[in-house]
Design the sequence.
């Protein structure tokens, strides 16, 4: 406060306007020397202007970002719809391919089934014929063996009789000789 009172006394004691102007200039010089950063200080007016300018810039950035976000959202929505459409097309194509594969497989299965049925019938017929042939051959062999066995039995009986009759006569003769000796 002492410097303000000194300034007042210097202004009051100044003799003319020029001396007063000099006192005022010296006071400003002392203020500048004492507060060198004073020109850099922000006033409320400057601060308010900066705040308004920043708010305006923020609003502009918000508006720009909103537009960009909307554009990005629209682009993403379009891309999503394209991907969905592609997925639907792919799904339909795959369903058609699956249906075609099913049809082809069904036809192939039916063809294989028909071929197998024919093959089974052929094998069954062949086996039936083979079994009948084997049965006929076995029947013939059995009949042949029966005939051979009968022939062998007859031959063995005849052989036995050929041996048995002379043996019996020899036994009768031996018994008769024994009876005479006794």
Sequence:
């Amino acid at each position: 406060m002492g410097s303000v009172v000194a300034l007042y006394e210097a202004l009051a004691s100044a003799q003319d306007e020029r001396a007063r102007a000099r006192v005022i200039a010296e006071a400003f010089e002392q203020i500048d020397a004492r507060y060198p950063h004073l020109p850099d200080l922000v006033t409320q007016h400057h601060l308010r202007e900066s705040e308004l300018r920043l708010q305006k810039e923020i609003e502009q950035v918000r508006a720009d970002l909103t537009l960009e976000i909307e554009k990005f959202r629209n682009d993403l929505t379009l891309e999503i719809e394209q991907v969905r459409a592609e997925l639907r097309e792919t799904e339909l194509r795959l369903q058609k391919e699956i249906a075609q594969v099913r049809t082809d497989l069904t036809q192939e299965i039916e063809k294989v089934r028909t071929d197998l049925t024919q093959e089974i019938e052929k094998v069954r017929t062949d086996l039936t014929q083979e079994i009948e042939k084997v049965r006929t051959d076995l029947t013939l062999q059995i009949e042949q063996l029966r005939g051979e066995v009968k022939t062998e039995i007859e031959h063995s009986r005849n052989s036995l009789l050929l041996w048995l009759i002379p043996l019996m006569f020899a036994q009768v003769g031996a018994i008769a000789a024994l009876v005479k000796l006794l």
About this structure: Residues 80 and 175 are 130 Å apart (CA to CA). The two ends are 196 Å apart (CA to CA). The chain has two domains: 1-41, 52-181.
